[in-house]
Amino acid sequence: MVKSRDLCRGIDRSDGFATLTLDLFSGSPNPNPCSYSRSAKRVRVSCASPAAAAAGENRSNLFDSLSEEVLFLILDRLESDPLDKKSFSLVCRSFYAAESRHRRALTPLRSGLLPAALARYPSVSRLDLSLCPSVTDAALASVGGALRSSLRSINLSRSRGFSYAGIESIAVNCAALVEINLSNATDLSDAAAAAIGRARNLEKLWLARCKMVTDMGIGCIAVGCQKLRLLCLKWCLGISDLGVGLVAVKCKRLRSLDLSFVPITEKCLPAVLQLPHLEDLALVGCLSIDDEGLMSVKQESKSLQVLDMSNCQHVNHTGFSSMLSKTPGLCQISLAYYCKVTHSLASSLQKLCNLQSIKLDGCEVTTSGLKTMANSCRSLGELSLSKCSGVTDEGLSFIVTKHKGLGKLDVTCCRNITDLSLASITSSCTSLANLSMESCILVSREGFRLIGQRCHLLEELDLTDNDLDDEGLRAISGCHNLCVLKIGICLKISDEGLIHVAKGCPNLQELDLYRSVGITDIGVMAIARGCPLLQIINLSYCTEVTDHSLRSLSKCSNLNTLEIRGCQVSSSGLAIIAVGCRKLTKLDIKKCYYVDDAGMLLLARFSQNLRQINLSYCSVTDVGLLALASVSCLQNMTILHSGGLTSNGLAAILVACGGLTKVKLHSSFKPLIPKPILEHVEARGCVFQWRDKPFQVELEPSEVWKQQSQEMHV
């Protein structure tokens, strides 16, 4: 982590000057730096020496002498952790002012903070309000007034409480606005769409699940926003062929169009395919499109590169083949939960010279279909067969042998493949970066060892619910670039295997050990020492994990997600995590029976970035719960079967936590919490989920749980 104190170093000299050395260019710069030249590394400024100060001469602040250009260079080097920039701004007045002018992105947690934030940061161009459960029209009006010339992007995708008036304030006042995300605004109607139409420079617009917007509203957008390049209308059930046709006629610059689950037919497709720059088209779940309709379409699209026709239940290989013949430039195709992938369907891929990615998740696949696909495609880089029935060793081996350049392969729940497939995969596709093989139950422990022996470039590996053992992990430890490793429900791995991973995979950022019951503190401690970049770890139901593991994990300062359901941890261990892992945003301590109010008090004091917590079955009372009210970021709480809580305590925390967006409670509390309080919290944008789940004391043995899970899949 780059700190402001590491970036500059003052060297006093006897002549009354100081040389300030700035280490600004040795590391990776911010991906979106402000626009200015990057010239000087060394700045010589006038500053009286301590001796001169003692003599009574005027002394200026060395940092105040730095130019804004240099200060912006320093800010570009600071990481995204807001605490770093906050520390920087507290150095002196000039640093405070520079940080204020440098900030381009703002993500407040509640709209009540907007007035102060807008006054503090007048140059914000990207405003994300998706974490604010309620945003009023008055708040949007203040945004339109304060960021009139700078605002380019606003995200309201999970906010409520505003109407067309608020949107109009933004659209009219912010002439530079190019992006608006209004997804999930289910109450917005055509009046809001008409207001959007006044944003003449808009280039990207998301309206997913805006179910009340009709053809009239989308027509206003089409007429007013003719510079649109991206438009998402997913689940806009009020829009038909007429509205989509208007968009296609007016918005000629469109490159990405999502019509998933929109009740359209093939009638609008000729106009859509005629868009000269269209590259990405999603038609997921368009149930009114069928084979006959697709075959009637004559218009071609040479620009289209990505096509998603997943879950189009009335389209078979004839309609799909007809569609492919009109889109020869496709690079990526998704047909998840589609019809049977046969020889005829695969043959239609022959004309797609640029095809690099095929996703067939949930389809019924035949061996002849896979072989034809292998011969039809020239150079696949990504293949997803997740949950496909009919995948065999013969078909899979054939396709990976033909396409040795595969970088990503997903065969999750392909339960008929064996070591033969894995041998072909690892010998042919040695450049694999991402491999998912969850629940491939016929692959032996010897087969999994081939992964580490041959695929040394792997970055992500998912072997959840497999016959993996410590020797397999020893081999996998040779994948030194590994960032994500998921080995949950692997009952034969132990600390020995984790020690190998810790030694060989220093770049590991995510580790999933869910229900891998052979893991103890020894293995977790090894991971904490060997993988300092760790951000996410799941130790749920690893019942031998105790506070010793938490003590070691507290040294992983980047840890943001910790799941320890059913572990033998206490408030002491949780306190150590709270102090050491200040970036923690998600915490699951369900069935951690030894966590009580003491743990909550320290968590509330030190984990100020916490957004999601599960306290079910913990020994927390009203006192500990109320302590969490000081965590201003908290948005999501799950509290089931916590015997020490009362309805009064729950009511108090609901009122005190103004940023809550989702709360899951036992249904027995619903009649006990005053109705006005529930209505007040809901009015702020919070959604309640009431559960009537019975109390469960004993944990199911992992072997029993795994057997039940496999029976469900059969």
From TrEMBL:
An example of a Gene Ontology BP annotation on this entry?
SCF-dependent proteasomal ubiquitin-dependent protein catabolic process
The UniProt record lists the F-box/LRR-repeat protein 15-like leucin rich repeat domain at 151-315, 346-457, 468-552
Spell out the Pfam families in the cross-references: DUF7885, LRR_6
List, alphabetically, the GO terms of the cellular component aspect: SCF ubiquitin ligase complex
Gene3D superfamilies given for it? 1.20.1280.50, Ribonuclease Inhibitor
The superkingdom listed in its UniProt entry is Eukaryota
Q: Which PANTHER family match?
A: F-BOX DOMAIN-CONTAINING PROTEIN, PARTNER OF PAIRED, ISOFORM B-RELATED
Q: What is this protein called?
A: Leucine Rich Repeat family protein
